[in-house]
Design a protein that fits this description.
Strand 7 and strand 8 form a beta hairpin. The model has no long low-confidence stretch (mean pLDDT about 90). This protein has 4 helices and 9 strands. By secondary structure, it is of the alpha+beta class. It is elongated and about 65 Å long. Helix 1 crosses helix 2.
Length: about 160
């Protein structure tokens, strides 16, 4: 039976390239010379450090601009509130990867409400969709693309 997986993944290589480009721009920008501004990546968390909230906002715009240029959707980025710490202000950008249980149930319900002849199964942070016909699976992909889900979705592991 044909099947595919609905996942939400971030291309790590593109993420690394986007962070490197943002760091390079930070080094060359005149308004950040002589400040404590920094970008510190750790796995799926990017820590932004600046002297003021305005600089922190500018730093966030640099990073988000580089992420979008590299094809990483901002729907997978979660911004924390600025935290003052002594003379500096910090903010974390958390990148969401994988489909959470609540979102998987929402997607499954959306597919079932469309009355398509497919079955859905939640496998950890993936949603597997199985059907008898390839056309039904393509309808599910079109349905999920047209729905307004805040997290970017990819469709992989398509098998006949």
């Amino acid at each position: 039976m044909p099947s595919f997986d609905v996942v939400s993944e971030i291309d790590r290589h593109e993420l690394t390239n986007a962070i490197d480009q943002a760091k390079r721009e930070l080094e060359t920008r005149f308004d950040f010379r002589g400040t404590a501004a920094a970008i510190e990546p750790k796995e799926l968390v990017i820590k932004l450090i600046a002297d003021s909230e305005f600089q922190l906002q500018q730093l966030g715009e640099i990073v988000t601009q580089k992420l979008t240029k590299r094809g990483i959707s901002l729907g997978s980025v979660e911004f924390s509130d600025p935290e003052p710490s002594g003379k500096i202000v910090q903010r974390n950008l958390t990148l969401k990867e994988g489909i959470e249980q609540a979102l998987a149930k929402k997607l499954s319900g959306l597919i079932k409400d469309a009355k398509l002849k497919v079955q859905t199964q939640i496998n950890g942070d993936k949603l597997r969709v199985t059907g008898k016909k390839r056309d039904d699976l393509q309808e599910v992909i079109a349905l999920l693309r047209s729905s307004d889900i805040e997290q970017p979705l990819q469709y992989n592991n398509f098998r006949d």
